[in-house]
């Protein structure tokens, strides 16, 4: 029965932590945040299943991880100078239809991976891409000349 009480307490604590962390933090997880939450799960498991006889240690470990996550989010929101350190910066992968191979090598992105991402956006050839940017969340944004021209045309109402 003690495991049930431990599980109830830890469940309530994790529910509280996710509410305090905020929607922006939990809405779309970065790779780091995903690893952080998996690690928290492991820490909680030890406290619930009595491998570590103290629920307090699980709460302290998860609480510390959560406070650090909130602190990093706060720094991202408040400090323009520190944001590149804590959050990263977008990187140009394709400029004027030409892949920037030196950047792609540094980011470990192959030409095939880049083209697969482009095809997912309906782009068939590199020369259609005006700009491709590797965003800080790992996604690639594509900007094409046809997208710019299409945006200039007013919508027709029938």
Question: How would you characterize this protein structure?
Answer:
There is one protein chain. This protein is of the alpha+beta class and 158 residues long. Helix 1 packs parallel to helix 4 and helix 3 runs antiparallel to helix 4. The longest helix has 24 residues. The relative contact order is 0.09.
Short overview:
With 158 residues, the chain is of the alpha+beta class. The chain has helices spanning 2-21, 23-27, 31-48, 55-78, 83-86, 101-106, 111-120, 145-152, and strands spanning 91-95, 98-99, 129-134, 140-144. It starts with a helix and ends in a 6-residue tail after the last helix.
Globular, elongated, flat, extended or rod-shaped: what is the shape? Answer: elongated
In terms of structural class, how would the helical and strand content be classed? alpha+beta
Strand residue content: 5-15%
Radius of gyration: 22 Å
Count, helices: 8
**In the residues, how many domains can be counted?**
2
What is the typical, i.e. mean, pLDDT?
Answer: 77
Helix and strand arrangement:
Elements: H1 2-21, H2 23-27, H3 31-48, H4 55-78, H5 83-86, E1 91-95, E2 98-99, H6 101-106, H7 111-120, E3 129-134, E4 140-144, H8 145-152
């Amino acid at each position: 029965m003690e495991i049930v009480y431990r599980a109830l307490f830890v469940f309530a604590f994790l529910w509280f932590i996710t509410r305090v962390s905020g929607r922006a933090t939990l809405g779309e997880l970065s790779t780091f945040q995903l690893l952080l939450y998996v690690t928290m799960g492991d820490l909680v498991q030890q406290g619930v299943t009595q491998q570590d006889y103290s629920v307090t240690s699980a709460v302290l470990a998860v609480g510390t991880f959560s406070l650090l996550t909130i602190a990093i989010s706060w720094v991202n929101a408040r400090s323009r100078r520190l944001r590149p350190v804590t959050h990263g910066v977008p990187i140009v992968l394709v400029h004027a239809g030409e892949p920037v191979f030196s950047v792609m090598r540094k980011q470990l992105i192959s030409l095939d991976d880049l083209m697969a991402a482009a095809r997912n956006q309906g782009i068939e050839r590199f020369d259609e891409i005006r700009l491709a940017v590797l965003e800080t969340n790992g996604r690639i944004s594509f900007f094409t000349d046809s997208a710019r021209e299409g945006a200039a045309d007013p919508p027709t109402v029938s």
